[in-house]
Amino acid sequence: MGETDDIRVDAEWNAGDMGCGELVLELRARMKTLRPGQVLRLTARDPGAIEDLPAWCRLSGHRLARAAHPTYLIERKED
Amino acid sequence: MAGKFCVSLTHAKDDADKATVAFVVANAAVGSEQETMVFLSTEGVRLGVKGYADDVHEQGFAPLKDLMANFAAAGGTIYVCSPCFKRRGLDENNLVAGAKIVGGAKLVEFLAGGAPCVSY
């Protein structure tokens, strides 16, 4: 799919202004479609995403490889 | 800090009594060495905007703006519900001290470890 600096990106999703529960529920579904170790490049413009996405990664176990709002690189966890 | 403590507040000037008491309790928590977070949602998000609470002063209590300022100065955190804030067209660049715009995941993370929460 592409690379962001040294990180290979396997999938992309532009979530636009989506936020809160709607964002993380859809994000959960999209992460499930990836294989462990694959990376999603997410664009999330909701201002709550700055705090929410790191929290969601800590809760879910996926790795937040990079965060530069509104762009986030999230690596799928092992099964 | 000994533990975590959450105060959930869903009112602003529509119930200044509850808004005030919520911050009185939050100050009691942060003053008791608890890692304290006030979660503002629905109408409560209006309190996250600088200047909004300046004219709220319930009889028998300190002015709300002072309660909020003291809370932030003591290390308390205010989480402001992102979709609630957005739907009211409020200014995310004009938040009170200690406030952060968050979504549900941040609240869930705070509470998931078993933190108590009192609601107003």
Helix content of chain B: 25-40%
Averaging pLDDT over every residue of chain A, what do you get? Answer: 93
The CATH architecture of chain B is 3-Layer(aba) Sandwich
Tell me, what's the shape of chain B?
globular
User: Overall mean pLDDT score of chain B?
Assistant: 95
Tell me about this structure:
The complex is a heterodimer of chains A (79) and B (120). With 79 residues, chain A is α+β, with helices and mostly antiparallel strands. Chain A has a single domain, classed as Translation Initiation Factor IF3 (2-Layer Sandwich). In chain A, 32% of the residues lie in helices and 37% in strands. Chain A is globular and about 25 Å long. Chain A starts with a strand and ends with a strand. Chain B is of the alpha/beta class. Chain B has a single domain, classed as DsrEFH-like (Hypothetical Protein Ychn, Chain: A, 3-Layer(aba) Sandwich). Chain B contains four helices and five strands. A five-stranded parallel sheet of chain B has the order 4-3-2-1-5. Chain B starts with a strand and ends with a strand. At the A-B interface, helix 1 and helix 2 of A face helix 3, strand 4 and helix 4 of B.
